[in-house]
Design a protein that fits this description.
The protein is α/β, with parallel strands linked by helices. It has two domains: 273 residues, Zn peptidases (Aminopeptidase), CATH 3.40.630.10; 132 residues, Aminopeptidase i, Domain 2, CATH 2.30.250.10. It is built from twelve helices and 20 strands. The strands form three sheets. A nine-stranded mixed beta sheet has the order 1-2-3-13-4-14-18-16-17, sandwiched between helices. Strands 8-7-10-5-6-9 form a six-stranded antiparallel beta sheet. Strands 11-12-20-19-15 form a five-stranded mixed beta sheet, with no helix packed on it. A hairpin with a 4-residue loop joins strand 7 and strand 8. Helix 7 crosses helix 12 and helix 10 crosses helix 12. The protein is globular.
Length: 431
């Protein structure tokens, strides 16, 4: 797949994947189109060689794999991992705020959100809704307003003269989005809004009541290529939907000779300790049902995991925030992430294999080590490595504005990582 086609598909994927639920729905569509078979965790499985499968948990995490024409006991499995969630504003259970004739929605901060960029943006709302129908049955469905619905307005500079010098954000007071004006004596009910949207998107449903929901606000501005020479890609949720797309495209385009697997977990941004998160049993359960408990350890000893999660590019205005010898630059290749305190799972064996694969394809790569006097973030890599006992590499596309409502990456780096991961999924010898 060439660069232009890859990026066209990436832009579409980002635009469709407004929440973890919608990301998994979009991944499922790609897999269905490629002939993958969905497995239900409640059923008995019979995994056949040279077949393609996927499993979804909670609607927000997915494991997809090609069983391979060669036995996993002979070759091991080439695993790639990413995560479907991104920092955002989530709607509270009782969100109605009625103030001075305005209707606002109370929100909770999900993950390590960079809050300032959320002000004065056209926001929409999406997620999963659970409802009771006219027959008393409980169901759930995805909704996405896909239009400007709300805004978090800034306070005018005239009323806060120090805003540009020392402004701080109180997440309880300052962040509730404004979505409507209310008529005197008539207060809007949030669940009625959801009920109407559910009926509009799913006319065949007959919801009697909205029981609960998991909803996120998001920026309406579409993903786009930008720059004088279209060398950048700007979008919400690049961290880490970019890696999800890279991983699924690499697996779809691999030849299927070697067993290969992609896992996209939810809840990485809040610690991963959930049933569908990387600290939970989802991936290990799928592997055990595929391979059997005894063979799982043998296969993992022959396998390797690539944890793909975006890396910090050096910011031209803040170059001193990087180690002088480890400042990744956009469009100069994916970044091998190293931390001797094991916040990243990379070791010399796994990094060397990546370097070898890149060299074989004549593709660039970079390295990142956090400044010694700064704390280091982490990924699903160490968690998965600890759960499975599998050799792991942490790598990612360099980006700017991580955890902002709109992030920036190079237009070439995703395609470069895709090429190397596809090569990895077809590579015979692992360290």
């Amino acid at each position: 797949m060439d660069l232009a086609v890859f990026n066209e598909g990436l832009l579409h994927f980002l635009q469709q994947s407004t929440t973890p639920f919608h990301a998994v729905k979009t991944l499922k569509s790609l897999l269905d189109d490629a002939g993958f078979t969905e497995l239900d965790e409640r059923d008995a499985w019979s995994i056949q060689p040279d077949h393609h499968y996927y499993v979804i948990r909670n609607g927000s995490s997915i494991v997809a794999f090609k069983s391979g024409r060669r036995s996993p006991l002979e070759t091991g499995i080439r695993l790639v991992g990413a995560h479907t969630d991104s920092p955002c504003l989530r709607v509270k259970p009782n969100p109605e705020l009625h103030q001075k004739g305005y209707f606002q929605v109370g929100v909770e901060v999900y993950g390590g959100v960079l809050l300032n960029p959320w002000f004065d943006r056209d926001l929409s709302l999406a997620g999963r809704v659970t409802y009771q129908d006219a027959d008393g049955q409980v169901g759930h469905a995805l909704i996405d307003f896909r239009r400007p619905l709300a805004m978090v307005p800034s306070l005018a500079i005239h009323l806060d003269r120090e805003a540009n010098n020392s402004r701080s954000i109180n997440s309880q007071r300052d962040l509730p989005p404004l979505i409507a004006l209310e008529s005197e004596g008539m207060q809007i009910q949030f669940r009625e809004i959801l009920k109407g949207q559910l009926q509009a998107e799913h006319p065949s449903l007959s919801p009697k009541a909205i029981l609960d929901y998991e909803l996120s606000f998001y920026d309406c501005q579409p993903a786009a290529m930008l720059g004088l020479n279209q060398e950048f890609i700007a979008s919400a949720r690049l961290d880490n939907l970019l890696s999800c797309y890279i991983g699924v495209r690499a697996m779809l385009d691999a030849d299927g000779e070697q067993p290969a697997l992609l896992v996209c977990n939810d809840h990485e941004e809040v610690g991963s300790m959930t049933a569908e998160g990387a600290q939970g049993p989802f991936l290990s359960s799928v592997l055990e049902r595929w391979l059997g408990r005894e063979d799982l350890s043998r296969v993992m000893a022959r396998s390797m995991m690539v944890s793909a999660d975006n890396a910090h590019a050096v910011h031209p205005n803040f170059a001193d925030r990087h180690d002088g010898n480890h400042g990744p630059v956009l469009n100069q290749g994916p970044v091998i992430k190293i931390n001797n305190n094991q916040r990243y799972a990379t070791n010399s064996l796994t990094s060397s294999l990546y370097r070898q694969l890149s060299d074989e394809l004549k593709l660039p790569y970079q390295t990142f080590v956090v400044r010694t006097d700064m704390a280091c973030g982490s990924t699903i890599g160490p968690l998965t490595a600890a759960n499975l006992g599998v050799k792991t590499l942490d790598i990612g596309v360099p980006q700017l504005a991580m955890h902002s409502i709109r992030e920036l990456a190079g237009g070439n780096d995703g395609h470069t990582l895709y090429q190397v991961l596809r090569h990895f999924m077809m590579h015979v010898q692992l360290p």
